[in-house]
Amino acid sequence: MAKQKLPAVWMRAGTSKGLFIQREHLPKDLSQWAQPLIAAMGADPRQLNGVGGATSTTSKVAVVGISERDGIDVDYTFVQVSVGGGKVDVTGNCGNMASGVGPFALQQGLVKRPRKGEKTVDIRVFNTNTNRVIVETLQVDESGDFREDGDYAMPGLQGITGSEVKVAFVDPAGSMTDQLLPTGNGWDTLAVRGLVGDSTAQSMVKATMLDVANPFILVDASSLPSEMQEPARDDISFLAAVESIRCEGAVRMGLANSLSAAALVRGTPKIAFIWGNGEAKHADSSTDITVRSFSMGKPHPSLQLTGAVCISAGVCLPGTIPYSLARHGYVLGKQELPPTPSRTPSPVWAGEAGSTASDFRIDSAHTTYTVKIKHPAGDVYF
């Protein structure tokens, strides 16, 4: 079989790493992407014959091309390449990889260079996975090139600094389901199956199913069975139980028509366990929410950028589990959290207890808030 060349840039973006490829260098038919991308990342479980790092956070691809959409600079498609599974998943976005799209587009000449003397440039990106717009603000040097060096540090990148890339998600709600709350409820109960070797045994957990930037199942960790109270576990039975929650949530959110169909799509919806302020031994009294997220069936070493967006939105949505866990004494609209520069108004509650998704509305009189999230690699503010 003849070998083929695939021009690409291998780059770290946020806490992820992967290949950035121009759209024109791949087949026009997206269904034909799997073979070259799997070959490039590595098809074996250790990805020895490719550039993948044998983890979900290092087996990723961003496909970027000049956009024909009005007001958009480039289109971006995220591809999650399974590790040893021989599959690709294009059902959701990756916020960390998205942060590299702007720098890649500028370096590859896919967007106009900024005028001489400008220190920053805004690049408008259309994510084809979620049909949403992302605005990236990059720092540039005197010649208009992306300035890579800097003193900005982020959790999960010990000893690594660089220039800050600001990523703004425009109208992120309903990224895949077209609904902020796909089930119509602030929270629901989901079954946990397969614990302690008994595939028929099941218990129930509380979870908010929220679709902001990516669809997430946000599980109230205090409702987990005792066998799942240690979030650092990665044994087969524990991960199978986590997957059982995720699959039922996928069906409830309308992203799959059966549990077996949900099991075939590992990338979305995503799932995370969350604790409130000072709650249990895993939480931190100085934070609003403590999170343990999962990616492609494994514990995530830090937190997805889209996960931080989704959880932060949940903290501002009365009636949801993130809101309830993070309240610790304040009531939205009465005792405000420290304000941040306002971009879009925060959703506020318009109904009584027990109201559904239709009772959420946007109140322009309210400001936005800073939410501090603790994850395994550190803290993040949104």
TrEMBL record:
One of its GO terms (molecular function) is isomerase activity. It holds the Pfam family PrpF. InterPro entries: PrpF-like (IPR007400). The keyword Translocase does not apply. Signal peptide: none annotated. Keywords: Isomerase. Belongs to the PrpF family. This is PrpF protein.
